[in-house]
Amino acid sequence: MKSYDAIILGAGPAGLTAGIYLSRAKQKVLILDSGTGGGQVMLTHAVANYPGMPETFGYKLASGMKEQAVSFGCEILTNQEISAMDLKSTDKTITAGGETYKAASVIVAVGGKPRTLGLESEKRFQGTGISYCATCDGDFFTGEDIVVIGGGNSALEEAVSLTQYAKSVTIVHQFDHFQGYAHAIKAADENPKISFIMESVVEEFLGDEALTGVKIRSKKTGEVTTLKVTGVFIFIGYVPSTEPFADILELNNRKEIITDEDMATNIPGVFAAGDVRAKKFRQITTAVSDGTIAALGAMDYMHGPDPDKL
Protein backbone atom coordinates (compact mmCIF):
# COMPACT_ATOMS: atom_id res chain seq x y z
CA MET A 1 0.00 0.00 0.00
CA LYS A 2 1.47 3.35 -1.07
CA SER A 3 1.34 6.08 1.56
CA TYR A 4 0.84 9.81 0.99
CA ASP A 5 0.29 12.88 3.11
CA ALA A 6 -2.75 13.83 1.05
CA ILE A 7 -4.86 12.24 -1.65
CA ILE A 8 -6.87 14.57 -3.87
CA LEU A 9 -9.85 13.18 -5.77
CA GLY A 10 -10.29 15.17 -8.96
CA ALA A 11 -7.80 16.94 -11.24
CA GLY A 12 -9.80 20.03 -12.11
CA PRO A 13 -8.82 23.59 -11.09
CA ALA A 14 -9.77 22.97 -7.44
CA GLY A 15 -7.89 19.69 -7.14
CA LEU A 16 -4.84 20.87 -9.07
CA THR A 17 -4.61 24.07 -6.99
CA ALA A 18 -4.76 22.04 -3.79
CA GLY A 19 -2.04 19.80 -5.20
CA ILE A 20 0.15 22.80 -6.07
CA TYR A 21 -0.11 24.23 -2.56
CA LEU A 22 0.44 20.93 -0.76
CA SER A 23 3.30 19.65 -2.90
CA ARG A 24 5.06 23.02 -2.80
CA ALA A 25 4.90 22.67 1.00
CA LYS A 26 6.84 19.39 0.57
CA GLN A 27 3.86 17.14 1.19
CA LYS A 28 3.63 13.86 -0.67
CA VAL A 29 0.51 14.21 -2.82
CA LEU A 30 -1.46 11.88 -5.08
CA ILE A 31 -4.19 13.19 -7.38
CA LEU A 32 -6.66 10.65 -8.76
CA ASP A 33 -9.09 11.51 -11.56
CA SER A 34 -11.77 9.30 -13.10
CA GLY A 35 -11.26 10.95 -16.51
CA THR A 36 -8.36 12.54 -18.33
CA GLY A 37 -8.06 15.43 -15.86
CA GLY A 38 -8.61 19.15 -16.21
CA GLY A 39 -12.21 19.29 -15.06
CA GLN A 40 -15.02 21.25 -16.69
CA VAL A 41 -12.64 24.02 -17.79
CA MET A 42 -11.39 21.57 -20.42
CA LEU A 43 -14.81 21.88 -22.05
CA THR A 44 -14.74 25.69 -22.13
CA HIS A 45 -13.91 27.23 -25.48
CA ALA A 46 -12.41 30.48 -24.19
CA VAL A 47 -11.53 31.81 -20.72
CA ALA A 48 -11.33 35.60 -20.68
CA ASN A 49 -11.78 36.45 -16.98
CA TYR A 50 -8.97 34.58 -15.24
CA PRO A 51 -6.90 37.28 -13.45
CA GLY A 52 -3.55 38.04 -15.03
CA MET A 53 -4.19 35.71 -17.96
CA PRO A 54 -5.03 36.99 -21.46
CA GLU A 55 -7.95 35.21 -23.11
CA THR A 56 -6.99 31.59 -23.58
CA PHE A 57 -8.50 28.22 -24.38
CA GLY A 58 -9.85 26.34 -21.37
CA TYR A 59 -7.71 23.28 -22.07
CA LYS A 60 -4.55 25.41 -22.11
CA LEU A 61 -5.32 26.89 -18.70
CA ALA A 62 -5.99 23.42 -17.27
CA SER A 63 -2.83 22.00 -18.87
CA GLY A 64 -0.76 24.77 -17.30
CA MET A 65 -2.18 23.99 -13.87
CA LYS A 66 -1.42 20.30 -14.32
CA GLU A 67 2.17 20.99 -15.41
CA GLN A 68 2.68 23.26 -12.42
CA ALA A 69 1.37 20.63 -10.00
CA VAL A 70 3.65 17.97 -11.48
CA SER A 71 6.63 20.34 -11.34
CA PHE A 72 6.18 20.65 -7.57
CA GLY A 73 6.07 16.88 -7.15
CA CYS A 74 2.40 15.88 -7.44
CA GLU A 75 1.75 12.39 -8.71
CA ILE A 76 -1.31 12.45 -11.00
CA LEU A 77 -3.11 9.31 -12.13
CA THR A 78 -5.98 9.64 -14.61
CA ASN A 79 -8.76 7.27 -15.71
CA GLN A 80 -8.93 5.90 -12.18
CA GLU A 81 -12.34 4.67 -11.05
CA ILE A 82 -12.67 4.41 -7.27
CA SER A 83 -13.83 0.96 -6.22
CA ALA A 84 -13.57 1.33 -2.43
CA MET A 85 -12.74 3.92 0.20
CA ASP A 86 -12.46 4.37 3.95
CA LEU A 87 -12.55 8.04 4.90
CA LYS A 88 -13.58 7.67 8.54
CA SER A 89 -10.39 6.04 9.86
CA THR A 90 -7.39 8.11 10.93
CA ASP A 91 -5.51 6.69 7.97
CA LYS A 92 -7.81 7.22 4.96
CA THR A 93 -7.64 4.62 2.20
CA ILE A 94 -8.71 4.85 -1.44
CA THR A 95 -8.78 1.89 -3.83
CA ALA A 96 -8.68 2.70 -7.54
CA GLY A 97 -7.38 0.87 -10.59
CA GLY A 98 -6.62 -2.21 -8.52
CA GLU A 99 -4.31 -0.30 -6.14
CA THR A 100 -4.98 0.87 -2.60
CA TYR A 101 -3.51 4.17 -1.37
CA LYS A 102 -3.28 5.52 2.17
CA ALA A 103 -3.13 9.14 3.34
CA ALA A 104 -3.57 11.30 6.43
CA SER A 105 -6.00 13.62 4.62
CA VAL A 106 -8.27 13.57 1.59
CA ILE A 107 -9.58 16.43 -0.51
CA VAL A 108 -12.71 15.69 -2.55
CA ALA A 109 -12.69 17.83 -5.71
CA VAL A 110 -14.52 15.59 -8.16
CA GLY A 111 -16.59 18.41 -9.66
CA GLY A 112 -19.82 17.77 -11.52
CA LYS A 113 -21.29 16.47 -14.74
CA PRO A 114 -23.62 18.14 -17.24
CA ARG A 115 -27.28 18.24 -16.28
CA THR A 116 -29.53 16.47 -18.78
CA LEU A 117 -33.12 17.16 -19.80
CA GLY A 118 -34.06 13.63 -18.78
CA LEU A 119 -35.85 12.79 -22.03
CA GLU A 120 -35.77 9.24 -23.34
CA SER A 121 -35.01 10.53 -26.84
CA GLU A 122 -32.07 12.48 -25.40
CA LYS A 123 -30.34 9.24 -24.43
CA ARG A 124 -30.77 7.86 -27.97
CA PHE A 125 -28.92 10.70 -29.64
CA GLN A 126 -26.12 11.33 -27.16
CA GLY A 127 -23.00 11.21 -29.32
CA THR A 128 -25.00 11.12 -32.58
CA GLY A 129 -26.30 14.69 -32.56
CA ILE A 130 -26.57 15.70 -28.90
CA SER A 131 -23.53 17.10 -27.08
CA TYR A 132 -22.73 18.90 -23.84
CA CYS A 133 -19.37 20.30 -24.97
CA ALA A 134 -18.92 22.91 -27.69
CA THR A 135 -15.13 22.66 -27.58
CA CYS A 136 -15.24 18.88 -28.02
CA ASP A 137 -17.85 18.60 -30.75
CA GLY A 138 -18.42 21.98 -32.41
CA ASP A 139 -16.28 21.12 -35.41
CA PHE A 140 -18.53 18.15 -36.27
CA PHE A 141 -21.35 20.56 -37.14
CA THR A 142 -19.52 22.84 -39.55
CA GLY A 143 -21.98 24.42 -41.98
CA GLU A 144 -25.03 22.91 -40.27
CA ASP A 145 -28.04 24.22 -38.35
CA ILE A 146 -27.91 23.55 -34.61
CA VAL A 147 -29.78 24.30 -31.38
CA VAL A 148 -28.39 25.40 -28.03
CA ILE A 149 -30.59 24.73 -24.99
CA GLY A 150 -30.15 26.96 -21.94
CA GLY A 151 -30.17 30.57 -20.84
CA GLY A 152 -27.20 31.10 -18.55
CA ASN A 153 -23.69 32.31 -19.25
CA SER A 154 -22.49 28.92 -20.48
CA ALA A 155 -25.32 28.59 -23.02
CA LEU A 156 -24.85 32.13 -24.32
CA GLU A 157 -21.07 32.06 -24.51
CA GLU A 158 -20.88 28.60 -26.05
CA ALA A 159 -23.57 29.54 -28.58
CA VAL A 160 -21.37 32.40 -29.73
CA SER A 161 -18.34 30.10 -29.96
CA LEU A 162 -20.36 27.58 -32.00
CA THR A 163 -21.09 30.19 -34.68
CA GLN A 164 -17.52 29.77 -35.92
CA TYR A 165 -18.61 26.32 -37.14
CA ALA A 166 -22.38 26.25 -37.59
CA LYS A 167 -24.46 27.79 -40.36
CA SER A 168 -27.03 28.92 -37.77
CA VAL A 169 -27.56 28.62 -34.01
CA THR A 170 -31.00 28.74 -32.38
CA ILE A 171 -31.07 29.25 -28.61
CA VAL A 172 -34.10 27.64 -26.94
CA HIS A 173 -34.83 28.87 -23.41
CA GLN A 174 -37.68 28.11 -21.06
CA PHE A 175 -38.02 31.65 -19.69
CA ASP A 176 -38.71 35.05 -21.28
CA HIS A 177 -35.33 36.39 -20.14
CA PHE A 178 -31.76 35.10 -19.83
CA GLN A 179 -29.90 34.42 -16.58
CA GLY A 180 -26.51 35.38 -18.02
CA TYR A 181 -24.50 38.53 -17.53
CA ALA A 182 -25.18 41.58 -19.71
CA HIS A 183 -22.04 41.18 -21.83
CA ALA A 184 -22.88 37.54 -22.63
CA ILE A 185 -26.45 38.42 -23.59
CA LYS A 186 -25.25 41.32 -25.75
CA ALA A 187 -22.68 39.16 -27.59
CA ALA A 188 -25.31 36.56 -28.44
CA ASP A 189 -27.93 39.13 -29.40
CA GLU A 190 -25.57 40.92 -31.78
CA ASN A 191 -24.36 37.77 -33.53
CA PRO A 192 -26.12 37.51 -36.91
CA LYS A 193 -26.01 33.69 -36.87
CA ILE A 194 -27.95 33.41 -33.60
CA SER A 195 -31.75 33.45 -33.22
CA PHE A 196 -33.91 32.86 -30.14
CA ILE A 197 -36.96 30.83 -29.18
CA MET A 198 -38.01 31.98 -25.71
CA GLU A 199 -40.52 30.62 -23.19
CA SER A 200 -40.25 27.22 -24.85
CA VAL A 201 -39.07 23.72 -24.00
CA VAL A 202 -37.80 20.81 -26.06
CA GLU A 203 -40.22 17.90 -25.80
CA GLU A 204 -38.56 15.37 -28.07
CA PHE A 205 -35.50 14.78 -30.23
CA LEU A 206 -36.27 13.35 -33.66
CA GLY A 207 -34.45 11.09 -36.09
CA ASP A 208 -33.54 7.49 -36.83
CA GLU A 209 -29.84 6.70 -36.43
CA ALA A 210 -28.84 10.37 -36.26
CA LEU A 211 -30.58 13.52 -35.07
CA THR A 212 -32.70 15.31 -37.67
CA GLY A 213 -34.82 17.69 -35.59
CA VAL A 214 -36.31 18.80 -32.30
CA LYS A 215 -39.92 19.16 -31.23
CA ILE A 216 -40.41 22.42 -29.33
CA ARG A 217 -43.44 23.45 -27.26
CA SER A 218 -44.26 27.06 -26.43
CA LYS A 219 -44.99 27.43 -22.72
CA LYS A 220 -47.02 30.53 -23.51
CA THR A 221 -49.37 29.19 -26.21
CA GLY A 222 -48.89 25.43 -26.05
CA GLU A 223 -48.11 25.35 -29.78
CA VAL A 224 -45.73 22.58 -30.83
CA THR A 225 -43.33 23.13 -33.73
CA THR A 226 -40.58 21.05 -35.27
CA LEU A 227 -37.19 22.57 -36.01
CA LYS A 228 -34.93 20.76 -38.48
CA VAL A 229 -31.41 20.60 -37.06
CA THR A 230 -28.57 18.06 -37.02
CA GLY A 231 -27.00 19.09 -33.74
CA VAL A 232 -28.09 20.07 -30.23
CA PHE A 233 -25.88 21.39 -27.44
CA ILE A 234 -27.31 21.33 -23.92
CA PHE A 235 -26.04 23.81 -21.32
CA ILE A 236 -28.45 23.78 -18.37
CA GLY A 237 -25.98 23.47 -15.52
CA TYR A 238 -24.15 20.71 -13.72
CA VAL A 239 -24.94 18.23 -10.98
CA PRO A 240 -22.27 17.35 -8.40
CA SER A 241 -20.60 13.95 -8.74
CA THR A 242 -21.28 12.99 -5.14
CA GLU A 243 -22.93 9.57 -5.56
CA PRO A 244 -19.96 7.66 -4.05
CA PHE A 245 -20.02 9.93 -0.97
CA ALA A 246 -23.78 9.96 -0.31
CA ASP A 247 -23.57 7.68 2.74
CA ILE A 248 -20.25 9.05 3.98
CA LEU A 249 -20.21 12.84 3.79
CA GLU A 250 -22.93 15.27 4.80
CA LEU A 251 -24.79 16.55 1.72
CA ASN A 252 -27.47 19.20 1.26
CA ASN A 253 -30.74 18.71 -0.62
CA ARG A 254 -28.94 19.43 -3.92
CA LYS A 255 -26.49 16.59 -3.22
CA GLU A 256 -23.60 19.03 -2.67
CA ILE A 257 -21.01 18.42 0.07
CA ILE A 258 -21.43 20.68 3.07
CA THR A 259 -18.19 22.27 4.35
CA ASP A 260 -17.14 24.95 6.80
CA GLU A 261 -15.08 28.00 5.83
CA ASP A 262 -11.91 25.87 5.90
CA MET A 263 -13.46 23.45 3.36
CA ALA A 264 -13.64 20.79 6.11
CA THR A 265 -16.45 18.22 5.86
CA ASN A 266 -18.19 16.40 8.71
CA ILE A 267 -15.33 13.86 8.79
CA PRO A 268 -12.02 14.99 10.33
CA GLY A 269 -9.24 15.07 7.76
CA VAL A 270 -11.62 15.11 4.79
CA PHE A 271 -12.07 18.34 2.84
CA ALA A 272 -14.05 19.32 -0.25
CA ALA A 273 -13.38 21.95 -2.91
CA GLY A 274 -14.81 23.23 -6.17
CA ASP A 275 -18.14 22.51 -7.82
CA VAL A 276 -18.77 19.45 -5.66
CA ARG A 277 -19.37 21.50 -2.51
CA ALA A 278 -22.33 23.63 -1.47
CA LYS A 279 -21.85 27.23 -2.59
CA LYS A 280 -23.56 29.94 -4.61
CA PHE A 281 -21.02 30.87 -7.28
CA ARG A 282 -19.18 28.44 -9.55
CA GLN A 283 -16.29 29.92 -11.49
CA ILE A 284 -12.73 28.82 -12.22
CA THR A 285 -11.50 31.43 -9.75
CA THR A 286 -13.82 30.22 -6.98
CA ALA A 287 -12.65 26.64 -7.59
CA VAL A 288 -9.04 27.78 -7.30
CA SER A 289 -9.89 29.62 -4.08
CA ASP A 290 -11.55 26.50 -2.65
CA GLY A 291 -8.53 24.41 -3.57
CA THR A 292 -6.17 26.82 -1.83
CA ILE A 293 -8.24 26.87 1.36
CA ALA A 294 -8.71 23.08 1.35
CA ALA A 295 -4.95 22.57 1.03
CA LEU A 296 -4.22 24.95 3.91
CA GLY A 297 -6.97 23.31 5.96
CA ALA A 298 -5.43 19.91 5.32
CA MET A 299 -2.02 21.26 6.39
CA ASP A 300 -3.54 22.52 9.64
CA TYR A 301 -5.19 19.15 10.21
CA MET A 302 -1.99 17.19 9.61
CA HIS A 303 0.55 19.48 11.28
CA GLY A 304 -1.41 21.94 13.41
CA PRO A 305 -2.09 25.60 12.61
CA ASP A 306 0.73 27.88 11.51
CA PRO A 307 1.89 29.60 14.74
CA ASP A 308 2.61 32.81 12.81
CA LYS A 309 -1.09 33.04 11.96
CA LEU A 310 -2.48 32.50 15.46
Based on the model shown, name its key terms.
single chain, alpha/beta, 17 strands, elongated
Would you give an account of this structure?
The protein is of the alpha/beta class and 310 residues long. It has seven helices and 17 strands. β5 and β6 (99-108) form a beta hairpin. α1 (13-24) packs parallel to α2 (58-71) and α5 packs parallel to α6 (182-189). The model has no long low-confidence stretch (mean pLDDT 93).
What is the topology?
Blueprint: E1 2-9, H1 13-24, E2 29-32, H2 58-71, E3 75-77, E4 82-86, E5 92-96, E6 99-108, E7 112-114, H3 120-124, E8 130-131, H4 134-137, E9 145-149, H5 153-162, E10 168-172, H6 182-189, E11 194-197, E12 200-207, E13 211-218, E14 224-228, E15 231-234, E16 238-240, E17 270-272, H7 284-303
Mean pLDDT across the residues is 93
Helical run tally: 7
Sequence of secondary-structure elements: EHEHEEEEEHEHEHEHEEEEEEEH
End-to-end distance: 36 Å
Q: What integer value in Å does the Rg equal?
A: 21 Å
Assess the beta-strand content as a share of residues. 25-35%
> Biggest sheet: strands, sense, closure?
7 strands, mixed
Helical/strand content category: alpha/beta
Percent helix among the residues? 10-25%
Quaternary form = single chain
The strand count comes to 17
Sum up the overall morphology in one term.
Answer: elongated
